[in-house]
Every structure is written in structure tokens, then in C-alpha cells.
Amino acid sequence: MIEFRNASKIFKSEDRTIEALKNINLTIEKGDIFGVIGFSGAGKSTLIRMVNLLEKPTSGQVLVDGQDLSKLSEKELRQAKKNIGMIFQHFNLLRSKTVFDNVAMPLKLSKTPKSVIEERVHELLHFVGLSDKANSYPDQLSGGQKQRVGIARALATNPSILLCDEPTSALDPQTTTSILQLLKRVNQEYNVTILMITHEMEVIKQICNRVAVMQNGEIIEEGTILDIFSKPKTETARNFVRSVLRDEIPQSIFHILQANDKFSKIYNIEFIGESSGKPILSQVAKSFAVDVNILFGSINELQGVPFGNLIVELQGEEAEIARAYDFIVQQNVLVNEVIRNGG
Amino acid sequence: MEVSLDLILQACWETLYMVSISLVFGSLIGLPLGILLVVTRKGHILENAFVFSILNPIVNILRSIPFIILLVAIIPFTRFIVGTAIGTTAAIVPLVLHIGPYMSRLIENSLLEVDKGIIESAQAMGATPLQIIFCFLLPEALPSIVLSITTATIGLIGATAMAGAIGGGGLGDLAITYGYQRFSTITIVVTVVILVLLVQGIQSLGNLIERKIRRM
């Protein structure tokens, strides 16, 4: 468990001070895959670096499993860091060492017996699917393979927490997905709590169960991934959600609609969970004298819960459309009118 | 008196002797000094304004004295260290004092080339400052350090030419006393050819080792 309590960070340089983090209060529960999203400069990197004290909070506390690391001696801190693994955007592997030696490094630093290192490293390389690359050097690996080595290295000392600093930002979408799947396995098979920072909502969508949105050094929104995706409260969160889930009619369709002079109304219907399974639109078409025209739709799965939206055009008499609308509202879905045409 | 093969061979030997011994002692000074210049600077793993603000100017001062002046300026010190102020061995003292600080700057540059992310990952693993230096910084900078030492070695060969001023001997001395002062063109040509070959050889060797380490 990681707790931020009124944690602030101020960077002072000669001519100015920058408030990188302002009064952060955040709790990451054991077992979470917690995502922190924000644009660059929002303070995400500082936030994640406070957990293993690469950055010291100017005020406030960061507790890891109830322990304030800044109160520890150098020696105790080094010990505590073995419980916190970290992976990086640019992998930060040693070019001069083989994959095996890179993964073995954290164990060598803590003077682990050679035979134990041997066994552990091979187990980890097997876990990340790189058993055949033990004697390769990082230069000979692809980006995705390098991040796998980074993950194996971070897990070497059996940490209970894994910090991920933009782990997929240097990777292509396909590799990103495979690395995220691996992180999910790390979370499930090794019971590792994951704190990840990213600027890509797609990454959050794929594996996180909770998410916090950061802006200008503050957490402006926090909740389960379903909360944030279905009911984003702030403009920034809405923009991030929009980057993965479209909820606007594509321009081309909009133009076709404008050319049509029949009376119609256009609604955006959002489904979450079981409502996704209901045949609402077919019931509308059968029960009311309206034509249903589906303009746009998407369906996603978030944490195993189906979630999506449909943009539909209802054509017909105004009164009949109003009755159909009332019916849809009663079906436990979110409906809002987008535009009205003709009439 | 014409130059003889014996004289040339002896000069070669003197040059190699001065270069190799100075290189060893110069490295013993330059390497730790270069490391200290890196790790004690602001924001680094052993930030120490006091140590840095003493070492940095010392290195600058030593580096700004022309070698020919250093050679004679430290004669009392040389006498104190090796018991004499003239001869090949005596030349080694100023050579070390000349190349040590030079090398520390080269090593400093090599170490600064190492990606900051490497240090960050080491700190995240809970490495001690010494572990960061020996398990991360030095191995990562090794190819570059090899090139730095190569450059320093070639710099040393140049400096030994001036060692003649205190009777140090060597190829440079031979070229001046026989070639220049006694108008022996052949001596100049021969020594220059030998020096060119020596420098080429050392540079090629340095490049070869560097490439081996970088596995290219």
C-alpha cells in the first residue's frame, strides 16, 4: 500500500521556484494497478519518484506499507528499496552487461549467493519470455524485449510494489499491449501492487483498475476506471477519455445529416454493464412509430465490464420521438440529445 | 658525430619508459580525481561543494601551466621525490603532474556521458555510492575511458619531447640535439617517422580495444 499525505514538492532554482506537486493525497491499495495520467509537466514523474525517494517531498509524507521512507537511515532505506521495483520509459539497462547480468544486478548488489542468483534470474527470464536471450546484450534486443528485461530486473528482489515510469511510451502499440499484459501477470502471479504513470489513456484503459488524473501538480480527479471513463468530471479527464472513446459524430456523417430535411433528433446513448446486453433499440423500433438510424457506435471492456456508446438518429413525429426518448431513459442508460434536424 | 642506430634505439626506449611509467602513475591520479570531479558535483551521488570547489581549481591551475615551465618550476619537488632533478627518471615526476590532471578531465567527460537514467535505476535498486561508481558508472563509461587514456598517452608522447630540457632523453630530445642543433636532417626524418608510427600504433590499439569492449 502506498499513501501520499499532503505531499508537496517545490523545486527551487536561482531565479524561480516551481511547485511540482501541491498537497497530494492519494492511496494506492495493495493489489491495485493504479494509473496516473496527465500531460507532460503535470507532476507525474515527481509523484512516482517520491515513492522510492528518488525525490524527497518538500512537505507531507509518503508512506509505503505504513512506513515513512524519509525517516529511515541510509542503510534501512537501501533495504526498503529492495521492496520497490522500478521500470523506466527508456529501460535504463546497462549496455556493458548481458541480459543475465542486468537482471542479476540488484541481487549482486545485496550480495546474494551465486547459486541463488543463477536460479532466480533464469526463473525471471522464463517468466518474461526471454530465456533464450540470457547471453545477449541490450543493444541486440528490440524495445519490447528491453522492457521485459527491465521488468525482470525490477522483480529480482521480490518486491511487493512496482513503479512504472511511462513503461510503454517508447514502444509501438502492439508491443505496448504485450508489455501491459505482462504487467498484468506480474500483478496477478506475483501479487505486486503497480503504480504507473503515463500520458496515454489507452494504457490506463488496458490494465488499470483505478486512475488519477493530474494537472499542474494536483490530482484533479480520481476513481475507478469505470467512474472516470463513464462520468469524467473535469475537462482534462473528458479529453483523455475522448482520446480512446469517441463520443462525437464523425464529420462525414454530420454533413449527410445536415442535407437531410426530415424531422429527427440525435441522441448519444451510453451503456454500462448489463444495460449493454439489452435490445433497447429494437424495442424502440417495434413499440414506437419511429425509425432508428445508428450513426456511430463503440463498445469497450473496462475491467471486465462492457462499456460503450451509440449515437442514434430517431426519425418520425416529434411527439412519438419524445415518447421513445422517455422509454430509453427508463432503461437505465445515459441519454443526451446531440442535435436536432429539420422540423 | 652522426646519429647511430644505438642512439635511436636508446631514445625509443627512453620515450617508452617515460610514457609508460607516467601513464601508470598519471592514471592512478587521473582516474580517482576524474571520478571525484563527477560524483561531488551538484546534484550527483556524493554532492560535496567543499571537495569540488577545491579539486576543480587545482586541476585547472595544473592544466594551465605550460609543460616546459612546469618541468623547471617543480625541480625542488622532483628532487624531493626521486632524489635528482635531471635524467629520464626525473622527467617522470613533471610528466605525471602534467598528465594526471589532464586525464582527470578526460575521465570526467567520459563519466558524464553515462545516461542519468542509469544512475537513477541504480539508486532505485538501493545501490551504495561506491556500487554506483564501480558497478554502473565505470563499466558503462569503459569504452569512452579507453579512448580517453589513448588520447592521454598520445599527449604524453608529445610532452616527453620537452623532457630533453632536463636531460630526460627520448626521441624528442634526439631530434632537437642531433637533428636541429647539428643539422642532421636524417635524424629529424627518422625520429619523426618513428613518432608518427608510435602515435598511429597507439591510436589504432586504443580504437581496437574500445571496439572490442563495445562489441562492434
UniProtKB/TrEMBL annotation, chain A:
One of its GO terms (molecular function) is ATP binding. It holds the Pfam family NIL. Keywords: Amino-acid transport, ATP-binding, Cell membrane, Membrane, Nucleotide-binding, Translocase, Transport. It comes from the Bacteria. One of its GO terms (biological process) is amino acid transport. Residues 2-241 form the ABC transporter domain. CDD domains: ABC_MetN_methionine_transporter. This is D-methionine transport system ATP-binding protein. It comes from Thermaerobacillus caldiproteolyticus.
Automatic annotation (TrEMBL), chain B:
The keyword Ligase does not apply. Signal peptide: none annotated. Residues 12-203 form the ABC transmembrane type-1 domain. It is found in: Cell membrane. GO terms for cellular component: plasma membrane. It is a multi-pass membrane protein. GO terms for biological process: D-methionine transmembrane transport. Pfam families: BPD_transp_1. Keywords: Cell membrane, Membrane, Transmembrane, Transmembrane helix, Transport. Its main location: membrane. It comes from the Bacteria. Belongs to the binding-protein-dependent transport system permease family. CysTW subfamily. NCBIfam families: PRK10782.1. This is D-methionine transport system permease protein. It comes from Thermaerobacillus caldiproteolyticus.
